[in-house]
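Weekly modeling sync, notes
Attendees: AB, CL, MP (scribe)

Item 1: holo prediction request
CL wants a bound-state model with glutamine before deciding which constructs to order. AB pointed out that an apo prediction alone won't tell us much about the pocket. Agreed to run with the ligand included and paste results into these notes for async review.

Input as submitted:
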Amino acid sequence: EYLQRIHEMDKVLSAFLSVDAERALYKAQLLDEKWDKGEHLGPLAAVPVAIKDNLCTKGMVTTAGSKMLETFVPAYDATSVARLEAAGAIILGKTNMDEFGMGSSTELSGFHPSKNPWDPSRVCGGSSGGSAGAVSSGMAPFALGSDTGGSIRQPASFCGISGLKPTYGRVSRFGLIAFSSSLDTVGPMACSVAELATIFQILAGRDPMDPTSWSEAAPYSDILHRKGALDLKDVKLGVVDIFSSSLEENQVNDVMRCFLDSIRVFTKLNAQVVSISLPYLEEALAAYYVIAPSEASSNLARFDGVRFGSRQEASHISELYQKSRGLGMGAEVKRRMITGTFALSSGYYDAYYRKALRVRQCIIGQFEDLFRQVDVILCPTTPCAAFELGERMGGDPVKMYREDVLTIPPSLAGLPALSIPMGFDANQLPLGLQLIGNRQGEDLLFRVGHAFQM
Ligand code: GLN
């Protein structure tokens, strides 16, 4: 059924970069045989899944949205993918994304843009736009995305679904094609928080292949069904005063209306609500756009046409590098590698990179202070709803960067954050609510998000 739906709908939406129907049906048949023999099937037995194309899938092309990796077939699975398959999930295909995760609309894919199922003249958000579009249109019941500065939460918000950026290290990054290693996370995207909790339980945990991964994992989906879980009287919510933050003028009313409505829902659920502010919003954005490109410039050095990446014909080695990288990578990726190399170069390191790290440390400290006062922080996920295709392309790249103003602060602090649908704007486009939790506070985020959705 899902393959049929992809066949019919993906012509319009372009959420997938590749679909392997034969492999999916074969895996389903294997599960069927296991079932007939009375063997144990995992908790996700025969549940189809779409995988963002920067997660390695053994034997299936993995491009990270780049022409550079157009023909790359990994010899191993990402740990997150392997865990889902071990639980019985069946991969339908790989989803479209901004090249190497750099972008907020999936228009910066090296292949084609993806279209928003709510209005195909608009973007899905990014960089996990293909995953968001696939779930939102019912082409997959759930998907994996990656989030470095907002790439799960912002497309979830634009497509009217739920998405979780886990605490840094909660889900193994092994097999994720690296963008910015100190910020990258892998997480689930689905229609409801209850589904996210079930999937997260399978994804989370220590992986010897990723030294930054954590061991503890809670029985997340059980928490939601505990007696009294839906009464939030023991929960203190910090509501971000968004009047003072950088939202776009014309959108403020819709975002504000939905945000105030959702706070009313939480008050009805008996949560205590206090007003807080998130200072350093502008500085966070600036620090991110120094740190992420710096790490990217180092991570992407391996794609040189020799060690990794498609190789162009050339008569000597530097021409080979130039041609392979020149033709293989898009303009935004080049911009970030140049910015990052500059920020790390001697003479500029202190002025840019080290300063950005100091700002990051201030933001971490500020969140620590806030979480001494409240349990969960609430703010909109994005300053606006899905924009028109092409609207922010060309010209000033900062227009696109500003999309991330509300999702970047928790990323810099390594905190978990959930985006759930909170309402619609005047054009009937979905808007997302962001719930930011304390380090390893996914259980409480699920409980609060689930209570809201119930
Ligand atoms: N949009 C942000 C960027 O372009 C975040 C992307 C991401 O989280 N992968 O860097």
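Recorded for review: The longest helix spans residues 349-373.
Action items: CL to compare against the apo run; MP to circulate these notes.
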